[in-house]
Amino acid sequence: MSKLTGLAPVSRPDARVLLLGSMPGAASLAQQQYYGHPRNHFWPMMAELLGFDAGLAYPERLQALQRNRVALWDVLQHCERQGSLDSAIRNETPNDFAGFFQHHRQLQLIAFNGKKAEASFRKLVLPNIVLPKACRLLGLPSSSPANAGISQQARLHQWQQLVTSLQNPLAQSVSNKKCQ
Fold it and tell me: Which CATH architecture has domain 2-178?
């Protein structure tokens, strides 16, 4: 198995939403770009939800997220994995969330791109930190092309909750869980 190191966070201090994956896949790590696999649904969904062109160059897509107060990172700093599937992840080491939260005090929502990201966060991070006040957790279906069990329309509908949170920071969804 290969020992992998994730990417640095993409954020501004005024971020209200933190979107977390588990660990970038092989294509993303090779490109040093979040969601670099051409069939991953992440960038087309975010472009549709936030109103920017999915065809923008990578730095401009990151800027579009930041303008919309969305931060992007992964739960894991290091892990071992053969291939790109989350199910192959072993020996996980989480990122420094305590430090991240100290510099991002306006966070109101932590959203997980897939079940593995949420499970790793709940197991490795949540027991050891204090989350920003009034922060909520939200599990979302994975944007991975390997997640074929959900239609693109249904996935986009669930991801729409991110925009609702950005437009109305006090909005509560039935599927949101308080961070406390």
Answer: 3-Layer(aba) Sandwich (3.40)
